[in-house]
Amino acid sequence: MKTSQLKPTDKQDRFLVTQSNDLVEANYSPDLTAQALKTARLILSLISPDDKDLRLYTIDIDALKQYLGLKKNTRWGAFYSRLKQTAMKLNKEPIEIRKPDGKYLVANLISAYEVDTINGKVTFDISGLLKPYLLELKKNYTSYLLAYIPKLKSSYSIRLYELLHQYRKIGKRSFELADLQKKVGSNYNMYGDFKRKVILQAQKDLKKHTDLAFAFTVRKEGRKVAGVEFIIFSNTPSTKKVAQLPFLEPVEAPKEKPAFQDTIIKAMNALGISEQNIAKYLAKGFDIIAGDDKKRVAIIKRCKTLENYYLEKLELTKQAANRENAAGYFIKALKEDWTTSATGKKSKDPKLVQEASTAQNKYNKLQRLLVGETKKKKALEISISQALAKDNTLLQEAYNKAFANMSAFVKGQINALGEAVLSLPIEEQYQQSFKIRLYIDMELKNLQPSKFLPVIELDKKLDALKAEITELKERYHL
Length: 478
Prior knowledge:
Distance between the termini: 63 Å
Largest sheet: 4 strands, mixed
Strand content: 5-15%
CATH architecture of the domain at 1-134: Orthogonal Bundle
Number of strands: 12
Structural class: alpha+beta
């Protein structure tokens, strides 16, 4: 079998990762780590477009260290341990590919690997089952530059980058939540955790390190999040070419352009429109325009693309300078298709000006009230907890429950406080250690819930305030 080799001094004009769309769409094991996926993408980038068959792919250890962000002088024993763990993940953790006939193919990314400790090389054998998804691809495939992958922090960021890159020319992509969780290999079942650990982390990662960025909105069924829609746009990463990886330079951007320029997203953001609302508006497409289909057809004929339509309205907003509510003006221009001739009349409408001013004043007042009520709630919680803690029997019970329910990690942090603190009477531990007090207060709430009813009432008031603020923000684009 032929061998393709990568050395740290290689300066190929580009390293592309190319996969069939069926492979991009695969479901991934949650146990495939970021390091495992990064290594797999490096191996895939060594496949030549002219290859008729899979080869053995050999990488110099120094090149692999550089690529994974490790120092060249990293001890061999430590590196070998990581390399073996990574290779075992690629060899044991399956991906699941749905075939066109409805069947599923379950395969591992590599079938074998060999480490040459004498010459400092590692050789990988890609699973033969993946051959149809990697070689002689003429259509229905996705290519992207390997150079954007090394600095991504999580496996979720890598998978989301691939899944969104596949749709970059379309500009948006929707997923059922359960399907997306399988594709990125997430074991976060609750949407709140999935949003925080997967989507928001990937959003930060991609914007900082890649040529793509995104905003997103959710689709709900009742109170439950059922789907996520991503708006995809081009991006200039804050981290430029990966200088420590000479074999990845110079980079050459893919020829296809994303559906939306990052300048449009940045301009909307500069008006004070949140990324979530940007996603919501862009997801509507031309349906954001109020009126009948005949009107929309005429607008599409005039502007050709949604991007041109947004640029037109951004220019109108720019011309109408010194506006108190530029975001509201811009959104109304989009929905009502304001044109240059109509702009002056609309912008001087005293009702609109008064309405926007009243809404802004109310919004500011509610924000101040929210801050004040939040402080009041915190002070009330502290007051109730400290009063209950004066009961030594109750304090002892809360203390025991707190330590029984702590995770090993938190217990380690508590133990790090040292014997000087932990040997004190419980009352003094409660007063001197914020962390101990925090966990005891949680247990006091569980033991005496009726005492905290005033806090629950304040919580309801805070929720109502937040809802009112959100409604004003979305309605008037504050």
